[in-house]
Design brief:
The chain has 346 residues and is mainly α. Helix content is 52%, strand content 1%. It has a two-stranded antiparallel ribbon. The protein starts with 9 loop residues before the first strand and ends in a 21-residue tail after the last helix.
Length: 346
């Protein structure tokens, strides 16, 4: 039997005269924060006296554990101001140090290359809102400082410029930073489109000769395929099939940009001992590598060779995948350092 407990929820009560209902379930910082804010709105709308606020809400708590705790000292709790009651409520029902855990998450929460600045800021502000009414809550100046430190490098450089430092209103600063990020995303999309167009052109112009005379069933591979069938990997998930389909992969060997399909796969099934579920990151890395190799092959070999810096190659790759192709420990692309200085595929 599963022991998992659903999170409690805050629901609108039947009729407008009653306060919101706190249902039974696991109590989290987010749930208690939502409950606190909805009750405050109810108190304001109904003009509930301060000395009646706690008692007016108690009847709408459905969790027997919480009600038992409340009733064990009801007179003491009823005399509390609502803010003090919420503090006591959190102390009783949340893990010790929950505020520090949220603060730690905030300090470590860095913007990803694939995430827009606006989306990331929303996530940061949402986490910070959980700390409302605690001493750990960050004001707008502190949030701005945190965002400036943890955004991606391009935005971090922009945040250090005088024009951005001179913006004193937090909302206006966010909007200026978001505009820089939108420009970054447009440039990223443009680079990716250029590479995709080049890649698609190359794929159309190069015949598939991997399987010998393009025959669908190559007898020389039949034995190797049959030997790999005895112990198979788990069936492809819907997500894996979509990734392979989107990235010209093979359902049999499960390689992206394989140059063949499952009906004439010369490779066979992957080793089930080392196989892991395919991800979008795997597809991006495979795509970037084949694009780089195609680009290198397209360069005029009659030109005098020169050395290309890693930065020069990175500049023409999608931001999200460049690091996976040109990492310092990747020996598979070491031949990139002996190509022409000005690639002719851009």
């Amino acid at each position: 039997m599963s022991t998992a407990t659903k999170d409690a929820t805050v629901q609108k009560a039947q009729g407008s005269k009653h306060p919101p209902v706190l249902t039974a379930g696991s109590l989290t910082p987010a749930v208690i924060n939502q409950w606190n804010m909805t009750e405050l709105l109810y108190f304001d709308r109904k003009t509930v006296p301060i000395d009646k606020q706690v008692s007016s809400v108690a009847g709408e708590i459905e969790d027997e554990r919480v009600l038992s705790w409340y009733l064990s000292d009801a007179a003491f709790f009823k005399a509390m101001a609502w803010a003090d009651f919420v503090t006591a409520f959190r102390a009783r029902w949340l893990p010790t140090g929950w505020e520090s855990e949220i603060v730690t998450r905030l300090l470590r929460f860095r913007q990803a290359e694939s995430t827009s600045f606006e989306e990331w800021v929303t996530a940061v502000e949402t986490q910070n809102a959980l700390l409302r009414t605690t001493s750990f809550y960050k004001d707008e100046d502190a949030v701005r400082e945190l965002l400036s430190a943890n955004c991606i490098e391009e935005l971090r450089v922009a945040a250090g410029r005088k024009a951005f430092k001179d913006i004193t209103v937090y909302k206006e600063w966010k909007e200026a930073m978001a505009e820089v990020d939108r420009t970054r995303i447009r440039e990223q999309s443009r680079h990716l489109k250029t590479i995709e167009n080049f890649f698609n052109t190359r794929m159309r112009s190069v015949p598939n000769t991997r399987n010998g005379n393009n025959t669908p069933n190559n007898p020389s591979t039949a034995g190797s395929r049959s030997t790999n069938i005895s112990t198979r990997c788990p069936p492809l998930t819907v997500e894996e099939k979509k990734l392979l389909s989107d990235h010209k992969g093979c359902y049999h060997c499960r390689r992206f940009y394989a140059g063949h399909v499952s009906q004439n796969c010369p490779v066979g099934f992957p080793d089930p001992k080392t196989y892991r579920t395919l991800t979008a990151a795997d597809a991006d890395a495979a795509k970037a590598k084949i694009i780089v190799r195609s680009a290198v092959a397209a360069i005029d070999v009659d030109d005098p060779p020169a050395v290309v810096s890693v930065g020069a190659v990175r500049a023409n790759l999608p931001f999200a995948v460049a690091s996976s192709v040109l990492s310092s420990g990747d020996d598979t692309d070491s031949d990139l350092y002996a190509v022409n200085e000005t690639p002719k595929w851009i």
